[in-house]
Amino acid sequence: MSTDGKLYEAFSEAIQKIVDAYKVAKSDDKLSFTDIISLVGTAIGEMVSVAEVFHGGDGSAKKAAVLAAVGTFYDEVIAPMDIAKIPNFIEPIVDKGVKQLILVIADGTIDAIVAIFNKGGWPDNTPDTPDDPQS
After folding, report:
1. Is pLDDT of 99 > 50?
2. pLDDT in tens, 27-47
3. Distance CA 131, CA 79 (A)
4. Is residue 73 included in any domain, yes or no?
5. 6: number of Cβ within 10 Å
6. How large is the greatest C-alpha to C-alpha distance in the chain, in angstroms?
7. Does any domain span residue 129?
């Protein structure tokens, strides 16, 4: 399988995990701030894993790529959701503040995930191929 095929498969698996987490969080037709933080945490973990395996840059470039992806994830998935009890004309201001908070949390979470994986080893998210070394 080509590197592009592996990348697509790794991203597909990561996206599916994020979608599954979203479905669990929204199972009661409500999405609390805690649910949003949990969902973003799942997204960050998956994005860090994929970036580590496939991004060619150094650690700061990988972190920047993940933070950009988290920002896009927030804009595309979280921000469009209607926040109960907040008037629609104020919601864009709240969304902007929550996004900044999420990015600050993501920054620290990325560092924590990388530290944990650096200490305990990175998971192999790439699909098995015939040329993989056997354990």
Report:
1. yes
2. 776 777 788 778 888 888 888
3. 43
4. yes
5. 16
6. 58
7. no
Print the domain residue range for 75.
Answer: 3-120
The answer to whether position 95 is within a domain reads yes
Residue 36 lies in a domain: yes
Q: What's the per-residue H, E or C state across the chain?
A: CCHHHHHHHHHHHHHHHHHHHHHHHCCCCCCCHHHHHHHHHHHHHHHHHHHHHHCCCCHHHHHHHHHHHHHHHHHHHHCCCCCCCCCCCCHHHHHHHHHHHHHHHHHHHHHHHHHHHHHHCCCCCCCCCCCCCCC
Q: Is a pLDDT exceeding 60 seen at residue 58?
A: yes
- When divided into structural domains, the chain yields a total of 1
